[in-house]
Design goal:
The chain is of the alpha+beta class and 257 residues long. The chain is built from nine helices and 13 strands. Strands 8, 9, 10, 11, 12 and 13 form a six-stranded antiparallel sheet that branches.
Length: 257
């Protein structure tokens, strides 16, 4: 027997905080199928594409993903990733943190000093910049940032700062210098500014940057990412998922420990 804990919005699908499952040695995927059978017919569907599933506090994507086995007495937490926003900003909530992403148009005058100045202007925000070439879509963005936040909660950050961990996981490297070199801000290149903080300050930041922002995820960078990280068609075809490339990137980011 093991226990499933529903967090936040997941309680709309299962109006209980904990559900005891009289099984063991089943996979995360088998649990998802089982939950769809157990869900009351008069409640909303559980969006399993936008949840983080943790076993005893550790993100299952850092284990064997949906093939991870659940043992007796395990605590499985179902944690929704809440999101929304306009075409020029993407906002979501995870683990009681407000996260906002804005894509900034590349300009000759914008370099690494840009984010240093923003950090001075908005000291209450955690800020990081990632080249637009390396963030596939909103699903990829949410999964990596959620992974970093969970790593912070479990004291397994790749660095001593959450914002640095985020950069390293998008770059798929444990070397900070390589992460900055490969996916940091470059003049004339678009980048996505990730900000974590309270809603009021996030809104001030958005209003400030709106004149130099552009629509998020407007360019198809799938081929660029595959080439850079040497991900082949064989790798893609081996993953059964709605977002196979993103899931491969998240899995690689999760095992950087």
């Amino acid at each position: 027997m093991f226990t499933v804990k529903f967090v936040g919005g997941a309680k709309k699908s299962f109006p209980v905080e904990n559900l005891n499952i009289d099984k063991s040695d089943i996979t995360i995927q088998e649990l998802i199928t089982l939950l769809s059978e157990l869900k009351p017919g008069d409640t909303p569907e559980l969006d399993t594409d936008n949840v983080l599933i943790a076993i005893n506090g550790a993100d299952s994507s850092a284990m064997d993903g949906k093939s991870t086995k659940i043992k007796d007495n395990d605590l499985v937490s179902i944690i929704p990733i809440i999101h929304g926003g306009s075409s020029k900003k993407f906002i979501f909530e995870f683990s009681k943190k407000q996260i906002q992403a804005i894509e900034i148009k590349g300009q000759k005058s914008i370099d690494i000093k840009f984010i240093d100045d923003l950090r001075k202007k908005y000291p209450k925000l955690l800020l990081q910049a990632v080249s637009s070439n390396f963030i596939l879509n909103s699903y990829h963005l949410k999964k990596i940032i959620s992974l970093s936040i969970e790593s912070q909660k479990n004291n397994i950050l790749l660095s001593n700062k959450l914002e640095t961990d985020i950069l390293m996981r998008f770059a798929l490297t444990k070397q900070i210098s390589d992460a900055i070199k490969n996916i940091g801000i470059r003049p004339k290149s678009n980048f996505i500014l990730i900000a974590i903080g309270n809603k009021k300050t996030l809104n001030l930041l958005y209003d400030d940057l709106l004149p130099i922002s552009t629509n998020l995820f407007s360019e198809n960078n799938e081929s660029y990412i595959k080439k850079h990280f040497k991900i082949t068609k064989k790798h893609i075809d081996s993953v059964y998922s709605k977002n196979p490339l993103a899931d491969i990137l998240v899995e690689k980011a999760a095992v950087l420990l």
